[in-house]
Amino acid sequence: MSENVSATSPGARSRLPLLGDCANCFGLCCVALPFAASADFAVNKNAGKPCTNLQSDFRCGIHTRLRTSGFRGCTVYDCFGAGQKVSQHTFAGRDWRQAPETAQQMFDVFPVVRQLQELLWYLSEALTLPAARPVHAEAGRLLEETERLTLLDADGLATVDVAAHRQKVNTVLLRTSELVRAKAGRKTKDRRGADLMGARLKGADLRGANLRGAYLIAADLTGADLRMADLIGADLRDANLAGADLTESIFLTQPQLNAARGNGATRLPSSLTRPAHW
């Protein structure tokens, strides 16, 4: 679905397996997932039903005009590489059209792998952060365990307790956050899960802020300094990031950026790409 299926920066290239590769996927996000008519989608679609825009080659027929056609939500989504892993590894290149008996199981395990792939993204990032060196050993162990889970067969994936595994990973991610944010050398208000919808934070010094799960929908963050801020799970839909500095922010993902608004002056981590619609 995402407009950002490739990346050019060195940091992004190092995590290419954790980015969606539509050319090697059977359009799973366009079939397995449901969506409702809204500002993000022009129509309703049930889970397991192919989007009417999905072509026979599993490509999107309106990919270059998704936003103008009312499918903004598609340009925000990224599967973190789950689509190609399920298509090419779990089901060994057998697609749900040629092998319809695999369809339901394929659609069921796709969200499981997608969640695990997102955890791989966070763990991979933790391993690149010098301040998090005290937890690198545990992060590495969990990364290997998570990768092993993604490589299970379809029956094995159906039994994975993603919530329990996420809880184990989150313990390391929380400690990583503490270690990195401490580098900012300043005490900040804990804004974890805070309701900051529409907040006026223009030019705000948010270095080292804990913004995990914060609601920043339509917040004005123009020119804000978000270096070393923890943005895991923060809702950035329509947040204005024009001129903001996100270079050292942690646990920021491409879907979060895709949902926000920014410009050429927005500074990004090297692992992420500037959304095409900015």
Automatic annotation (TrEMBL):
This protein's species is Streptomyces cinnamoneus
The record's listing under InterPro entries reads: 5peptide_repeat (IPR001646), Pentapeptide-BTB/POZ_domain (IPR051082)
Which PANTHER family does the protein's record reference?
BTB_POZ DOMAIN-CONTAINING PROTEIN KCTD9 (PTHR14136), PENTAPEPTIDE REPEAT-CONTAINING PROTEIN (PTHR14136:SF37)
Q: Gene3D superfamilies from the xrefs?
A: E3 ubiquitin-protein ligase SopA
Q: What is this protein called?
A: Pentapeptide repeat-containing protein
